[in-house]
């Protein structure tokens, strides 16, 4: 069983890496990019029967800084 966790900074939290990417795209001639948010993806190989609630608990305790980040879980 696999789980995919997408972690992004919450709206309103400054994203300096995203801003650097937006600026670099403009410098490369890709005009009109209004904003970039950068995040991370974590893929987990889990034992069969692992619940989404268990993965959420992993996110709350370790994988995401829930003060400034939000996460989304996909189970497969």
Automatic annotation (TrEMBL):
Record-level Gene Ontology MF annotations: ATP binding; phosphoribosylformylglycinamidine synthase activity
Reactions this protein catalyses: N(2)-formyl-N(1)-(5-phospho-beta-D-ribosyl)glycinamide + L-glutamine + ATP + H2O = 2-formamido-N(1)-(5-O-phospho-beta-D-ribosyl)acetamidine + L-glutamate + ADP + phosphate + H(+)
Keywords: ATP-binding, Cytoplasm, Ligase, Nucleotide-binding, Purine biosynthesis
Pathway: Purine metabolism; IMP biosynthesis via de novo pathway; 5-amino-1-(5-phospho-D-ribosyl)imidazole from N(2)-formyl-N(1)-(5-phospho-D-ribosyl)glycinamide: step 1/2
Keyword match Cytoplasm: yes
UniProt entry tagged with the keyword Cytoplasm: yes
Function in brief: Part of the phosphoribosylformylglycinamidine synthase complex involved in the purines biosynthetic pathway. Catalyzes the ATP-dependent conversion of formylglycinamide ribonucleotide (FGAR) and glutamine to yield formylglycinamidine ribonucleotide (FGAM) and glutamate. The FGAM synthase complex is composed of three subunits. PurQ produces an ammonia molecule by converting glutamine to glutamate. PurL transfers the ammonia molecule to FGAR to form FGAM in an ATP-dependent manner.
HAMAP family given in the database record: PurS
Protein name stated in the entry: Phosphoribosylformylglycinamidine synthase subunit PurS
Protein source organism: Citreimonas salinaria
Classification of source organism: Bacteria, Pseudomonadati, Pseudomonadota, Alphaproteobacteria, Rhodobacterales
Gene behind the chain: purS
């Amino acid at each position: 069983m696999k789980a995919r966790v997408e972690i992004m900074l919450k709206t309103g939290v400054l994203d300096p890496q995203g801003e650097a990417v937006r600026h670099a795209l403009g410098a490369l001639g890709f005009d009109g990019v209004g904003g970039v948010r950068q995040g991370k993806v974590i893929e987990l190989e889990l034992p069969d029967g692992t619940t989404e609630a268990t993965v959420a608990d992993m996110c709350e305790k370790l994988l995401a800084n829930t003060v400034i980040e939000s996460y989304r879980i996909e189970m497969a």
